[in-house]
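Homework help board

Subject: predicted structure for assignment chain

Our instructor gave us this sequence and asked us to write out the predicted structure in token form, then describe one feature. I got the tokens but I'm not sure how to describe them. Can anyone check?
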Amino acid sequence: MKLTATEQGLLILKDMLGENPEFELTQEKDKIIITGIKKTSSIWELGSNPVDCDIKDSAVNSDNYLYQP
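My token output:
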């Protein structure tokens, strides 16, 4: 594919980029390399996809075994 640069830069079609939401650009001499960044798990994502079950709150009795004599 041949691209022409405008004042704003280049437009790369999403179909060419794949599923990754973030990319890293690196330049080596006269080449620009686009690398997809794989999403890593984060503590900030905890609870974003909770388990769906019949128990209203599974954490209510989760520590009972600690307090049993």
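Reply (TA_rk): Your tokens look well-formed. For the description, you could write something like this. The chain has two helices and two strands. That's the kind of observation they're looking for.
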